[in-house]
Design brief:
- It comes from Rhodococcus rhodochrous J45.
- 84% of the residues lie in helices and 0% in strands.
- By secondary structure, it is an all-alpha fold.
- It has a domain of 82 residues.
- Helix 2 runs antiparallel to helix 3.
- The radius of gyration is 24 Å and the shape is flat.
């Protein structure tokens, strides 16, 4: 009985969240012009640059970041391979509940691998959007 009640209140909760979100977006859009006219950006014209620490720091930092990225990518790939093997093992044994868990694990591992592999593109896109 409590399950039916919670299922009925779900659309109501979604509608309430959607109306609050639209009200917030409307308020932000209406006040954006006046708020931006009142304050100046103190970081306008400044961009991050690690070159101030010298070329040695730049090359060291790049190698360390690349090494960490490579290690995380390798661990993520191993996790994906293990998840795919678990799916194969569950199918061969006929274990339906284990197959469902393995499929969820493989989906998560696949998304994680894709995000790690595309981290450079993702960070670049975020910086492009933020910098305008």
């Amino acid at each position: 009985m409590s399950r039916n009640t919670s299922m009925r209140s779900l659309p109501r909760s979604v509608a309430r969240a959607a109306s609050l979100l639209s009200a917030t977006i409307g308020t932000v859009l209406l006040t954006a012009g006046t708020a931006s006219a009142q304050t100046d950006n103190p970081l306008d014209g400044i961009s991050p640059d690690l070159g101030v620490f010298g070329p040695t720091f730049q090359s060291t930092w790049s190698r360390i970041a690349g090494g960490i990225w490579g290690a995380v990518l390798a661990v993520s790939a191993v996790n994906l391979i293990i998840s795919l093997y678990k799916i194969r093992k569950a199918r061969a044994g006929g274990y339906q509940s284990e197959l469902s868990d393995s499929m969820d694990s493989a989906k998560t591992a696949g998304v994680a691998f894709g995000c790690v592999a595309g981290a450079g593109i993702i960070v670049g896109a975020i910086l492009f959007v933020v910098n305008g």
